[in-house]
Amino acid sequence: MRIGVVGAGRIGAHHAAVLASATGVDELVIADTERDRAAALAARVGARTAPSPEAVFDGGVDAVVIAAATSAHPELIVRAARAGLPAFCEKPVALDVPGTLRALRETDAAGTLLQLGFQRRFDAGFRAAREALRTGRLGRVHTIRAVTSDPAPPPPAFLAGSGGLIRDCLVHDFDAVRWLTGREVTEVYARGATGGAGAAAFREAGDVDTAAVLLTLDDGTLVTATATRCNGAGYDVRMELSGELDQWVVGLDARTPATSAEPDGPPPPDHPWTGFLERFGPAYRAELAAFVRAARGEAPNPCPGREGLHALLVAEACETSRRENRPVRPADPADLTEPVEPAEPDPNS
Does residue 320 share a domain with residue 174? Predict the structure, then answer.
């Protein structure tokens, strides 16, 4: 199987290295708007290059992995659909709802596979917690607490195109909560704050460096989700599921960047998690292996692109709540569904 990788930045390079040794992958074709960067990555992983991202779709590949800048995702998804190619795309489908709907309509019209990159669905801890919850080991779950903390703010240039802390980081928690519980979010209340040395960059981007959200699920379960760009102790992703019978914690291990205040508590980790690629390395490998199987028709799509719309609508409601300081009900995806329009002819075909 020949797979095209569009985007040779940090996540694209990681995906290319994983795919280069993945079962069922015979060849990689790498492209990036910076041709030198694509060539350097291709040399490292034993791949060949395409002269441009657009050329990948005409280069005889069997599937594509989209790891380009977020702003490019919708158009690349559309190109994959019009080329009849299965596609894996890092989240999000798009930064806004109209762009997401357009990309999903094109995929639906073409009947092609679109798998979205919510890697937590493939993490061993999250999967074990889902099984425990679904089999009733926790009893009635009344409270969920989610934490996502980056060790340091990203460069100011990243903030402008990230969609903001809620859309960029907390959207993972929103998806994980839906996937774990099988429930929908019926109301959100969100607050944000900014301080410290990087405050000016966040304010200029209309963003915050810390956010807290209260979600209410359709069965009454309460969920708190917090995120920050300023967790100097390390990269921290945890989720606590509290039920009437038991309480499970995802992400609590020897590398969790937290120090116990108790005299007999565990010591701080010697090597705390430093970032998402390290913390979720096995999950990324499992995610791409699942995509290869799905693209070959050997397994169903484990994370359809429409899942991104659900999570985005929760994030959009949170942004409205944060700005207007009030509870907000997320839009119902069914109310946004538009008739599938025939794909316009591709002028490059």
Answer: yes
Domain with residue 150: its CATH number is: 3.30.360.10
> What's the domain count of the chain?
2
Three-state DSSP at 209 gives coil
Q: Is residue 84 part of a domain?
A: yes
The whole-angstrom separation of Cα 48 and Cα 286 is 24
pLDDT given for residue 344 in this prediction = 37
User: Which amino acid makes up residue 290?
Assistant: A
Residue located via tokens 């158009």: 75
Pairing, β 222-228 against β 210-217: antiparallel
What gap in Å lies between CA 273 and CA 234, rounded to an integer?
6
Question: 158 with 264, same domain?
Answer: yes
Which two structure tokens, joined as six digits, stand for 123?
């993490």
- Could you report the per-residue pLDDT of 232-260, keeping only the tens digit for each? 999 999 999 999 999 999 999 999 999 99
pTM of the entire structure?
0.93
User: Where do the H-state alpha helices sit in 28-96?
Assistant: 35-45, 53-56, 73-82
The answer to whether residue 51 sits within a structural domain is yes
The burial class, CB within 10 Å (0-12 / 13-18 / 19+), for 14 is middle
Report which secondary-structure segment, H or E, holds 190. Answer: strand 185-193
Structure tokens that stand for 70 in this block: 């977020």
In angstroms, the Cα distances linking 299 to 81, 116, 215, 308, 315 are 19, 15, 33, 20, 30
What digits encode the pLDDT tens for the residues 331-349? 999 888 653 333 333 333 3
Could you list the residue range(s) of the whole structural domain that residue 214 is in?
121-275+308-324
Residues 156 and 9 in one domain: no
